[in-house]
Design a protein that fits this description.
By secondary structure, this protein is α+β, with helices and mostly antiparallel strands. The chain contains four helices and nine strands, in the order E-E-H-E-E-E-H-E-E-E-H-H-E.
Length: 186
Amino acid sequence: MGGHHLILGKIPDFVTGETLVDTHDERYRQKLARLLVEEKGFRREDLIPRVSVDIVATGKKARLRLDLMICLDGQVVLLIKYGPGSLTTRHQVALAFSRLLAPYQVPFSVVTNGEDADTLDNIAGSVIGRGLPGILSRKDLQDHLRSHDRVLVADHHREMAAKILYAYEVDDRCPCDDSVCEWERS
């Protein structure tokens, strides 16, 4: 990883054990994974880090990275989007990702800057938890899932979600951000 990130060496991934480039952002991601397992009751195997998501929007293609995805019983049920700065600017990004990861809308998201977090009910469109303590535990997530019907995502909503992600994550990215891959559609 290059760009404007200060490289601090190497760090082991808490979930996979893989060796990663140690940056301040990566330290926050690892802190979050540790919190989910050690305090929120998730299993390491529930967590899938660094998920690649390919999008197509207005004739352009890009590969984005989602920081963390949580699966229970073979279903994607929660996604986590990390980024420094304001949380509210990432609500739309999380909602858009929730419409592209599966044929159904992923019901919950967490947007975090590593120090603070908003937990979102993607289907209701509301904030259901604030701060890192407000992130749902595994048990609370399972309880919430019982009251949610699976919502299939229409093609039109997928197209709109891809446009939102392209605008926020590709067009508006820092010029030195090398975590996004962009190419023209053939």
